[in-house]
TrEMBL record:
It comes from the Archaea. This is YjbQ family protein. Pfam families: YjbQ (PF01894). It comes from Halapricum salinum. SUPFAM superfamilies: YjbQ-like (SSF111038). Gene3D superfamilies: YjbQ-like.
């Protein structure tokens, strides 16, 4: 299964990974591809990759989920990251035509880092 490593630099960060995903698709791929992040404190979604919107998404997740006050924090102090990642979800499935994600004009595949900085592994499964 093709994978790509993506490094992040912030605790809560949204990063466009469309190019990295596209590079893993066979040139003749047609159908769909599932993009899955193999971590419990990161998520994947599809939305616009405009820089202010990416910041707005980070701010929204930060506002929805408080940083502290969670029972799991007694173990490794990152319960907020787990909850934020659950809200986003671990995968997306996108249509693929001629080896390219067949996204809308403003759509991109986004990695949502909730416990960075880290290096994350994304699996790309063309079907």
């Amino acid at each position: 299964m093709p994978t790509v490593s993506v490094s992040t630099s912030e605790h809560l960060e949204v990063r466009d990974v469309t190019e990295e995903v596209t590079a893993l698709l066979p040139e003749d791929a047609d159908g769909v591809a599932t993009v899955f992040v193999r971590h419990t404190t990161a998520g994947v979604t599809v939305n616009e990759a405009e820089s202010r919107l990416l910041g707005d998404l980070s701010d929204a997740l930060d506002g929805l989920v408080p940083d502290d006050g969670w029972a799991h924090d007694e173990i490794d102090d990152n319960a907020d990251s787990h909850v934020r990642a659950m809200l986003v979800g671990p995968s997306v499935t996108v249509p693929v035509s001629d080896g390219q994600p067949d996204l809308g004009a403003w759509q991109s595949i986004l990695l949502v880092e909730c416990d960075g900085p880290r290096t994350r592994t994304l699996q790309v499964c063309p079907h």
